[in-house]
Amino acid sequence: MRDATLASAPTALLATRTLVVAVVLYLLARTLRDRRRRDSRDVATRARAAVDRATAYSSEDVAKHASKDDLWVIIDGKVYDLTEYADEHPGGADALARNAGRDATTGFRGPQHPSRVFDVVDDYLIGVLA
C-alpha cells in the first residue's frame, strides 16, 4: 500500500507543477494585455493643441484631409483627426487611409475593433459634421 502512495507522488507533483506554470502564464498574459491597453491609451493621449470639439465641419472640409499625412475621418457624425495615430494603428496606416477624408463609421464599427477603441478615438475628436 505504501509503495502505491509513493509511486503516485511524482504524478501529483507533476500535476501541481503543471498547474502552477499554467497560473503563472495566465497572469503574465493578463499583465501584458493590460500593459498593451495602457500603452495604446498613452499613444492616444499625447499632448495636443486644444481644440473646440463643437466645431462644425462640412463633408467637403473633411474630404480635404484624405492622406496618411493629413488624415481626418467621420465616425457617427463626428470628425476625428487621426493623423498622429495612423502609424500606431494596429492594422497599419493603410487601413485608416482607405477611409481618409470620408465617413468611416461602417469600418470603425466592424468586429475587428476591441471595445477600448471607443476610448482611444475620443482623444482625436476635433468637431462634428455640419
What would your notes on this structure say?
The chain is α+β, with helices and mostly antiparallel strands and 130 residues long. 48% of the residues lie in helices and 15% in strands. A five-stranded mixed beta sheet has the order 1-5-4-3-2. The longest helix has 43 residues, at 2-44. The radius of gyration is 24 Å and the shape is elongated.
Topology:
Blueprint: H1 2-44, E1 56-57, H2 59-63, E2 66-67, E3 70-75, E4 78-81, H3 93-97, H4 105-108, H5 117-122, E5 125-129
Parallel strand pairs: 1-5
Antiparallel strand pairs: 2-3, 3-4, 4-5
User: Which oligomeric form is depicted?
Assistant: single chain
Cα-atom Rg, whole angstroms?
24 Å
> What name goes with the CATH superfamily of the largest domain?
Cytochrome b5-like heme/steroid binding domain
Number of helices: 5
Distance between the termini: 84 Å
CATH architecture of the largest domain: Roll
Please count the beta strands (DSSP E, at least 2 residues each).
Answer: 5
CATH top level of the largest domain is Alpha Beta
Class from secondary-structure proportions: alpha+beta
H/E element order: HEHEEEHHHE
In order across it, which strands form the biggest sheet? 1-5-4-3-2
Q: State the domain count.
A: 2
Helix content: 40-55%
Q: What do we call the CATH topology of the largest domain?
A: Flavocytochrome B2, Chain A, domain 1
The average pLDDT score comes to 82
The largest sheet, given as strand count, sense and whether it forms a barrel, is: 5 strands, mixed
Shape: elongated
Low-confidence stretches: none
